Each structure stands twice: as structure tokens, then as C-alpha cells.
Amino acid sequence: MPLYRECPSCRALLTEDQLTTSEGLCPYCDARVGAHGEFASPDAAPDTRRRRPLVPLSAPATLSGKLATALFLLFEQFALIAGLMLLIKLPSNIGIELIADQNPNRVDPVEILRLKILVDLFFGPIYMAGIVTLLANRMSGLPTTFREAAQAGLHNWASLFAARIVSGFFILCGVILFIIPGIILAIRYSLIDEAVVLEGATVADSRARSSALTAGKELKIFLAGLVSFFLIAAFFELTRDLAGQAGLFDDPLTRAAFDSLVDVFAIFYSIVLFLYYWEARTERESAGLLLTASKEVQNYEL
């Protein structure tokens, strides 16, 4: 009997005790693990949530391939990704724009940015955990409903929020001491979301797990960040010019809608990071299979 079982949906590693307590359902994404009758009662209603499977995807080896795959995933899953993000982004952006619009004095754009960062700090883990679960399912060829993604987001909010706070503190210290250490730490901790949501890493272990996943890929992730930043900035400038020509910035509600749309497309970089995680995970699994095969050959020779 293996020590852990892997969830076919979110790929989390689960113990037998966890599965027994939850009657065979993954505690992170609520997907069924193993045969239906292994943990649940045979008289229970059948699990019909797994719909027509999709074609599994793999993470390309090149940066251009990852960028193209990230764009494909963004547009293919746009409805779910936008739904998860707009559920939080749109109300918060509307509130911020209305507050700024009612202020008789001109509001400093830095203050608006600070408010948006604060909102994303608290509520960002909800939609990000849902998106990570959605992407993991899609790469495995499994569809995801909005409810499943939202449940994963709510379930992982506390642990992901805490892990982000701690890692952000270390990154900030690195920036204060000298900018370069802050950048290095930001790259090493860039896969904390995936480590917490998909692998169940604790707050204490998440930084080490992310560092292990990014080992040997730091420069590639840095270059991917630069390219993604320029692509997102180009999209922002293009859409801002078009919205300005159409007079959409005259109303706070249309400004909030524009900001929310840009936020949805900015998730592109997070998808690129996820592909680096998926690549590292695939490499780790391949290395484990090779090690197992090598041990079997040695045992056979003995």
C-alpha cells in the first residue's frame, strides 16, 4: 500500500487517513480518489462530476512555447478564469474608483495602486488557488466547473494567504537590503501558489518547496517575467488608448471595468509560471520512475 495517493484532479499527495476521513474525496478540490467503493458506501450516489475528458497538455521546453501555451490556456479557459477573478476584482475596482471619484481633491495614483494591492493581498489567494486547480486539471485532461474551482480557492485561502505573507516579508527584506537579493528571492518563491495548492505544502515548507521547484530555472523564469511584463504592458497601453479615444475613462464604472479586464489578462504571467511548475513536476516524476526502474533492475540482477 503506497504511503500517499495522488489526487487525479489537483495532483495533491494525500494520506490514507485523509482519504478515510473524507470518504475518498480530495480535501483540497473535492474530487474522488481511487475506486468509488473503496472509501464511500456502495449505496451512495455516483460521482458524475467528471465530464468528457480533454486532451492532456505538457509544458513546452522553450520560452516561446510556454508563452504560446499560456495564451492558449488563457483564452481556452477565459470564461472560468474571468469569472473567478471578476468575482473579486470587479466589485473592489468599482469601490476604489467610486471612492476616488467622490474625493474633491485629485487622488494620487499611488494611493489607488496601494488600495488595489491591499485588496489583492487579502482576496487574491482565493481566485489564484482556483486558477491553479483549474490549470492542473486542464493539463491532466480533466475539465473543471466554476464551483470546483471556487471551492478550491476558498479551501486554500488561509494557507496560501499565510504563505504569501511570509514569503513577501522575506522578499521585502531582500529589496530593502539590496534590490538583487529581493529579485532572487522573488524568483525562488514564485511557485509558492502551486506548492501550497497542489502539493499541500505548509507555510513553513512552501518556500523551500518553491525553491526546489525553481532550482536551475531561475534565469529562465526571470526572462519569462521580463517578456510577460512587456506583453502585458503593451496590451495595457493599447487598450488604454482605445478606451481613452472612446471616452470610457470619464465614468468611474467604466474605468473599473477596464481595470478589471486588464487584471484578467495580466494573469497571463501566472499561467507562464504554472507551466514552469508543471515542467519541474514532470521532471521530478520522470526522475522518480527512472530511479524505481533502476532499483528494480539491480534487484533482478542480484
UniProtKB/TrEMBL annotation:
Membrane-crossing segments per the record: 117-137, 157-180, 219-236, 256-278
Alphabetical UniProt keywords: Membrane, Transmembrane, Transmembrane helix
UniProt protein name: Uncharacterized protein
Naturally occurring in which organism (per UniProt): Paludisphaera borealis
